[in-house]
Amino acid sequence: MSARTPVIAGNWKMHKTTTEAHRYVNELVELIRGVEGVEVVLCPPYTSLPEVTALAAGSGMRVAAQNMHFEESGAFTGEISAAMLVDIGVSDVILGHSERRQYFAESDDDLARKVPAALAAGIRPILCVGESDEEREAGQTEEKLERQVTRDLEAVSGEQAAGIIVAYEPIWAIGTGKTATPAIAGDACGFIRETLAGMFGRETAEAVRILYGGSVKPNNIGELMAEEHIDGALVGGACLDPGDFSQIVRFG
Ligand code: PGA
């Protein structure tokens, strides 16, 4: 067991109205009352962030946005800045989720600006990286992970790096029900830690929490958490039900 505190984050994606969010958080708070030693992060859509931060206050849960722009303000219709998130009590932000990269053309150049912008505003980035099916088949998994980690974190200082969370999310496992085996996920997370050690030094790399994401469910979280380099999970589909998510928070 490492000294790193586990993190379980629930990425709601484009699900739940604010009314539904209200009911969900109240239920979840009851279901995980008394659970200790794990950081829980709720990642609702922008519209529910004020409600969720208010309801989660005092529960110990953190609240993340699912994206943000790298500029502080300006003529960027439809975008949200770090300062706007801080102002409503948001503590974390998911950056570089594969759906943002795939459907919204988010690039490593964008991420190399978003990560430092979040850190400068005092928001903790949860940076997502991961390979596609084709890349894994072609033996390019490590190359892809190394490229994403190196480029997306290029403007981050050694001091800042320890506070970042990295989520390994193989694209072929997201929303497909095809979870990576614990060994595959553990190896990839270990490789990400080696990459971080090369960039920021061993001590910093050992402090970074690395999560696995991709079809995490109550019945597979236990074996994933047993892997040395997996420090938690970024959960999509299975976080939408408070009962399932509370089981994942308890590691199954
Ligand atoms: P999933 O999504 O758990 O539904 O596979 C994970 C994610 O996209 O973060």
Explain what the structure shows.
By secondary structure, the chain is α/β, with parallel strands linked by helices. It has one domain (7-68, 79-249): TIM Barrel (Alpha-Beta Barrel). The chain contains 12 helices and 8 strands. Strand 7 (209-213), helix 11 and strand 8 (232-235) form a beta-alpha-beta unit. The model has no long low-confidence stretch (mean pLDDT 96). Residues 11, 169, 174-175, 213-216, 234-238 line the site of 2-phosphoglycolic acid.
Which features characterize this protein?
12 helices, 15% strand, 252 residues, TIM Barrel, eight-stranded parallel barrel, alpha/beta, binds 2-phosphoglycolic acid, 8 strands, single chain
Radius of gyration: 17 Å
Total DSSP helices: 12
Instruction: Give the full name of the CATH homologous superfamily.
Output: Aldolase class I
CATH topology: TIM Barrel
- What ligands are attached or bound here? 2-phosphoglycolic acid
Beta content comes to 5-15%
So, CATH architecture? Alpha-Beta Barrel
**Helix coverage percent of residues?**
40-55%
Order of helices and strands: EHEHEHEHHEHHHEHHEHEH
The CATH class is: Alpha Beta
Number of domains: 1
Give the strand order, joined by hyphens, for the main sheet: 1-2-3-4-5-6-7-8
Poorly predicted ranges: none
Main beta sheet:
8 strands, parallel, barrel
The residue-averaged pLDDT reads 96
Provide the structure class: alpha/beta
